[in-house]
Design brief:
With 136 residues, the protein is mainly alpha-helical. The chain has a single domain (22-135), classed as Growth Hormone, Chain: A (Up-down Bundle), CATH 1.20.1250. The chain contains five helices and two strands, in the order H-H-E-H-H-E-H. The chain has helices at 3-22, 25-38, 64-77, 84-99, 120-135; strands spanning 56-59, 114-118. Strands 1-2 form a two-stranded antiparallel sheet. Helix 2 (25-38) runs antiparallel to helix 5 (120-135). The chain starts with a helix and ends with a helix. Keywords: Signal. It comes from Gavia stellata (Red-throated diver). One of its GO terms (cellular component) is extracellular space. One of its GO terms (molecular function) is cytokine activity. Residues 1-20 form the signal peptide.
Length: 136
C-alpha cells in the first residue's frame, strides 16, 4: 500500500467518525431503544380508519431526517409516549441535524417523503435501523 492510498484511507475513516459524531448516533440509538422498551403500541396503522394508533411516516432513503422531525413532532403533539422529554430531545436533535446539514445521507431535502406510514413501534424501529447503519 503506498502513502497516498494510506492517507486516503485515514481521511475516509476520519470523515466517517466525524459524521457519526455529528449525528449523535450512540445517544439516538440509546434513547430510541429506551422508547421501544417502554412502547406498548403495536396496533396496526390504518390511515383511513378511525384508530387510536398513530400513523407516522416511514421515510424513503435520503428523507429520513425530515420524516423523523415530522414523526416526533406528531408524537409530542398527540402524547404518544410517556417519555416526553426523550421525544423532545430526539425531535430537537433531528431538527438541528436537518437544519445544519449534518448526517447528509439522511437529508437530501427538507421534505418528508414516504410511501407508507407505520405505528409508533415501526417508526421507532426505522430510526433505530437508520442510526445503527451509520454506526457500523
Amino acid at each position: 500500500m503506498n502513502a497516498s492510498m494510506l492517507s486516503y484511507l485515514l481521511f475516509s475513516c476520519l470523515l466517517l467518525s466525524v459524521q457519526a459524531q455529528n449525528c449523535t448516533v450512540n445517544e439516538i440509538i440509546r434513547y430510541t431503544n429506551h422508547l421501544l422498551r417502554k412502547s406498548s403500541v403495536s396496533c396496526p396503522c390504518r390511515e383511513t380508519a378511525v384508530s387510536s394508533c398513530s400513523c407516522l411516516p416511514i421515510a424513503e432513503p435520503g428523507h429520513e431526517l425530515a420524516c423523523f422531525v415530522e414523526g416526533t413532532k406528531h408524537m409530542l403533539k398527540n402524547n404518544v409516549s410517556s417519555s416526553k422529554s426523550i421525544i423532545e430531545w430526539l425531535n430537537q436533535t433531528f431538527w438541528i441535524q436537518l437544519d445544519r446539514k449534518l448526517c447528509e445521507s439522511l437529508a437530501r431535502g427538507n421534505e418528508c417523503r414516504y410511501k407508507t406510514k407505520g405505528n409508533t413501534t415501526e417508526f421507532l424501529n426505522k430510526i433505530l435501523r437508520t442510526y445503527q447503519a451509520i454506526n457500523k
